[in-house]
Amino acid sequence: MIQNLTELLQKYGEQVALQWAKHLHENVSDHYAARPFEELLTTTSQSSRANFDAIVYGDYSKVDAFIAKICDLRLEGGFALSEVQKAFEIYRQILVPILVKELKGDTLLEALQRLNDCLSRTIFAFSDYFLHMTNARLIEKQKKLDEDLQAAAGIQQSLLPQKLAKQPKFENLDIAWKFMPCETIGGDIFNVIRLDEDHLGFYMIDVSGHGVPPALVTFSISQTLQPHMGYTIRKRPGLSPNYEIVPPGEVLKALDSEYPWERFEKFLTIIYLILNIRNGHLIYSNAAHPPPILVHADGTTELLETGGTIIGLDGILPFEEEEKIISAGDKIILYTDGVFEFTNEKMALFGKERFHALVDSKNGLPIANILEEIVLEIQRFVGSAKLQDDVSILGIEFKERNATTQHSPQINLTIKD
Fold first, then answer.
1. I need a labelling partner for 59 at 20 to 30 A (CA). Which of 104, 184, 311, 399 fits?
2. What is the DSSP letter of 337?
3. 252, 255, 134, 269: which is closest to 208 by C-alpha?
4. Residue 100 in contact with residue 108, Cβ under 8 Å?
């Protein structure tokens, strides 16, 4: 029987490989149709020879080698497992009519059994190998993605106010912050920028969504707001001084034009404040951002709400400004809605009222301690649940100035991460 089967497979080997290649090219899938016919013929010829050794001699070494080779090729080509399984099955569809025509009785039955054994083992082995390789590649891609996200998170962290520690310091100002992204990287960004000897700019931004897309937008905006970019400091060549600090309303108007909704399809809110650190003069504008809390030294509070609508709506409303005088002992707390729009494991909402009550109860503490207490309360409330949004808080405390050091002020920066 083996001799008859050997002669039969040798006789029809090239014909089977040719029909197999044509069928792959014309009838299986777009992936196979896109491959050069000569390549498919080479593949079916190699597979036919490997199947010959397996059917006739029970030797699967060539089949296993072919599986490893074709698996890599099909993975690189974006083939689905089912496509390749179907491709293997075509060999049976072509060969069975030949066996029925040429063989009879027990000889035919044994030949069919050997063919079925060969294809069953081949398709099972290929499927197992394909899934293993697919999982391995997915794991490798996930590892690379995790590494990229960690690198992006590092970049995002570098944009936070910690770099203020490298700048000249002012004795009458304390700054503290907290940042807890709900994913590796988030859609919040905030910073403190030195505008000149007397003025600091403070901003906090919240871009809708989480993960990479909003993080890219926040990165772009943080670079746009750097003084050398011309959005927060305007040069005046030939004049004295040779620069002009751009008012908050104009800064938001420029961002509104630079970051239209249709460009990113992201909601963007921002609060931008300019503080004169010598006399406490504050001017700000709010683009639909949760209003910062101004906590006065006597314990009373007010919200910094003046401004306009979200960034990106093509100037449908002007960005109004408001001015305040900040006195010694006053504090300003900037935040995103992630500090109150979250639930615990019982689906109870923390809520805006609870957040404001918490700030009121802690207003006598130094600014760094207030932020610490806020975060601890958030963590206690959340418990085992997961934060649904990024939590960002930036606190500023205006302190008494020492008359002997007015001309060499210092900032006491408290970093909390």
1. 104
2. G
3. 269
4. yes
Cα separation, 317 vs 265, whole angstroms? 19
Do 397 and 174 form a contact (C-beta atoms < 8 A)?
yes
**Shared-domain flag, residues 214 and 335:** yes
Q: Same domain, yes or no, for 274 and 397?
A: yes
Q: Determine the structural domain holding residue 383 and report its residue range.
A: 163-415
What confidence tier does 23 reach under pLDDT thresholds 50, 70, 90? very high
Give every CB contact of residue 214 below 8 A, 6+ residues apart in sequence: 186, 187, 207, 208, 266
Question: What letter would DSSP give residue 403?
Answer: G
| Residues 244, 254: Cα–Cα separation, whole Å | 15
How many other C-beta atoms lie within 10 A of the C-beta of residue 263? 10
* The pLDDT of residue 408 is above 50: no
Amino acid at 237: P
Crossing angle for the helix pair 61-76 and 105-158, to the nearest 10 degrees: 40
Does the pLDDT at position 133 exceed 90? no
SS3 133: helix
* Number of domains, the chain: 2
What does the alpha-carbon distance between residue 198 and residue 313 come to, in Å, rounded to a whole number?
A: 33
Please enumerate in sequence order all residues whose Cβ is within 8 A of that of 23, keeping only pairs 6 or more positions apart, or say none: 90, 94
For position 63, which CATH number holds? 1.10.490.10
Quick one: pLDDT at residue 415? 36
Q: What is the structure's pLDDT at 185?
A: 61
Between CA 173 and CA 282 the distance in angstroms is 13
Tell me the chain's radius of gyration from C-alpha atoms: 35
Closest by alpha carbon to 290, among 206, 386, 170?
Answer: 206
